[in-house]
Automatic annotation (TrEMBL):
It catalyses: 5-oxo-L-proline + ATP + 2 H2O = L-glutamate + ADP + phosphate + H(+). Keywords: ATP-binding, Hydrolase, Nucleotide-binding. The keyword Nucleotide-binding applies. Forms a complex composed of PxpA, PxpB and PxpC. The keyword Hydrolase applies. The lineage of its organism: Bacteria, Bacillati, Bacillota, Bacilli, Bacillales. Its EC number is 3.5.2.9. Catalyzes the cleavage of 5-oxoproline to form L-glutamate coupled to the hydrolysis of ATP to ADP and inorganic phosphate. Belongs to the LamB/PxpA family. NCBIfam families: PRK05406.1-3, PRK05406.1-5. It is an enzyme of class 3 (hydrolase). InterPro entries: Glyco_hydro/deAcase_b/a-brl, LamB/YcsF/PxpA-like. This is 5-oxoprolinase subunit A.
């Protein structure tokens, strides 16, 4: 019988200047892929370089995490951008991170839009197509991450890119398969044990319990743990431990 496996990804490099966010060095001991901020919603050249170096040292696959140009809002507020602007800001950020990865002797594995850009592209075909086109312009070997059944994944597939359906370890779901908005009660899971159980059940059965108490089917090629959470390291440790004890291998997509 083929052994179950899953990619566990985490957002990284989200400090800026003198400000540090997340415990990246510790988190990298538990995840298999990292999504590195590219300077628009968070991150800066020094942070990008040091995070790339950390990933290579720890054998973690590297992905780009482009966001909207909104440092103050951490890229989680929608902006009225055109498809051309979506293409340009994505291409700009991928190029910046790719340069650091290349300089350190590594390889860029995937692209995962951040925050509002991710959710906008999940619903709007023209933005999704622009992001997919920018990704393809950088490399046809990149994998585009997005929510299951989203416009983002459809656009990636139409462009000839590999795609990966992403689920979340530390977020709750609505009955329609969308994430519970962050401003609503119950949006975040506050128990590491609950998050770990959600991940293992999702990998084993392809199902997750919605906030309304209903089972829903959800494809997951990769599962995200947010690195900026107060208990992110404990979550990552408990999730990895339960996956290991359940016979589920944690491996990057490539």
């Amino acid at each position: 019988m083929e052994r179950l496996r899953i990619d566990l990804n985490c957002d990284m490099g989200e400090g800026f200047g003198a400000y540090r966010l997340g415990r990246d060095a510790e988190l990298l001991d538990y995840v298999s892929s990292a999504n590195i901020a590219c300077g628009f919603h968070a991150g800066d050249p020094a942070t990008m370089r040091s995070t790339v170096q950390l990933c290579l040292r720890k054998g973690v696959a590297i992905g780009a995490h482009p966001g909207l140009p909104d440092l103050q809002g951490f890229g989680r507020r929608e902006m009225a951008i055109t498809p051309a602007e979506a293409y340009e800001l994505t291409l700009y950020q991928l190029g910046a991170l790719q340069a650091f990865v290349h300089a350190e002797g590594g390889r860029l594995q995937h692209v995962k839009p951040h925050g509002a850009l991710y959710h906008m592209a999940a619903k709007r075909h023209e933005l999704a197509a622009a992001i997919a086109a920018a990704t393809l312009s950088v490399s046809a070997e990149l994998t585009l991450f997005g929510p299951p059944g989203s416009e983002l994944l459809r656009a990636g597939a139409a462009a000839g890119l590999r795609t990966a359906s992403e689920a979340f370890a530390d977020r709750s779901y609505q009955r329609d398969g969308t994430l519970t908005p962050r401003d609503q009660p119950g949006a975040l899971l506050h128990s590491a044990a609950d998050a770990a159980a959600q991940v293992v059940r999702l990998v084993r059965t392809g199902k997750v319990l919605s906030l309304e108490g209903e089972d829903l089917s959800l494809q997951a090629d990769t599962i995200c743990l947010h690195g900026d959470g107060a208990h992110a390291v404990a979550f990552a440790r408990d999730i990895r431990s339960l996956l290991n004890s359940s016979g589920i291998a944690v491996m990057a997509l490539d």
